[in-house]
Amino acid sequence: MTNPVQDVGVVIVAAGSGSRTGSEELKQFRWVAGKPMLLHSIQLFQQRSDVCMVVAVLPKRYAGDPPPWLFQSDISRLLVGVGGNQRGSSVRSGLDDLPAEARIVVIHDAARPFVLDETVDAVIAAARNGTGAIAALPETDTLKRVGEDGRIIETIERAGLWRAQTPQAFPRDMIDEVTRRANREGISATDDAALCEHYGFPVVTVPGSERAMKITTEADFARAEVLSMLAQ
């Protein structure tokens, strides 16, 4: 059996302050389900034989002296990048660190440690077909637009609305172009697919998972522990 081509590069965005947890410790370094949150994602992607490199983008003060547990992984396929003040600059830093052979790029938030293998398979497969791809879930709740005073302004029709998750995958040329243009033009976005949309590149959705929740608050950590136990 021939070995698969290692042409997938992964950027894990882990440069945030994590202030909404109410803890002084960075949330991406906190333990959840038996290991530090960031390590879950690093090990998930390094289990793949098509991944040539994983770049973990950390806050500047940690990039030069990362926590030792970070190296409980394949260090030959791990680089530590220096994050910026905004998500866009952190992603761009990670992209710059990827080797030339990474023709497909996966971007993932460290705050989502429980992504399913089949989700990663699906976004990469779509990117190989020439489009951007994101994991997403259809919105099922009733949505309200609320003013600063707490009063409801309007109810938003939820048909066709989806909740974006990560991982998100792109052809290297596509994500390189949109991030460089966005940085040059001062355009920011809360996810990378939005930049592709802004510049007219196609992006498709693949089925996400409720298990791939984003851990933001202290209550999320408790919920994540429960989810991990149910998955065993």
List keywords for this structure.
two-stranded antiparallel sheet, Spore Coat Polysaccharide Biosynthesis Protein SpsA, Chain A, 7 helices
Averaging pLDDT over every residue, what do you get?
93
**Regions with little confidence, pLDDT below 50 for 5+ residues:** none
Strand ordering within the main sheet: 5-4-1-6-10-7-11
CATH topology: Spore Coat Polysaccharide Biosynthesis Protein SpsA, Chain A
Helix content: 25-40%
Total separate domains = 1
C-alpha geometry = globular
Oligomer category: single chain
Write the H/E string, N to C: EEEHEHEHEHEEEEHHEH
CATH C-level label: Alpha Beta
CATH architecture: Alpha-Beta Complex
Q: Quote the beta fraction.
A: 25-35%
- Number of beta-strand segments: 11
The CATH homologous superfamily is named Spore Coat Polysaccharide Biosynthesis Protein SpsA, Chain A
* Major β-sheet profile: 7 strands, mixed
Number of helices: 7
Rg from alpha-carbon coordinates: 18 Å
Tell me the distance between the termini. 32 Å
Describe what you observe in this structure.
- This protein has a single domain, classed as Spore Coat Polysaccharide Biosynthesis Protein SpsA, Chain A (Alpha-Beta Complex).
- The radius of gyration is 18 Å and the shape is globular.
- Strand 4, helix 2 and strand 5 form a beta-alpha-beta unit.
- The mean pLDDT is 93.
- The chain has seven helices and eleven strands.
- Helix 3 crosses helix 5.
- It has 232 residues and is an alpha/beta fold.
- It starts with 7 loop residues before the first strand and ends with a helix.
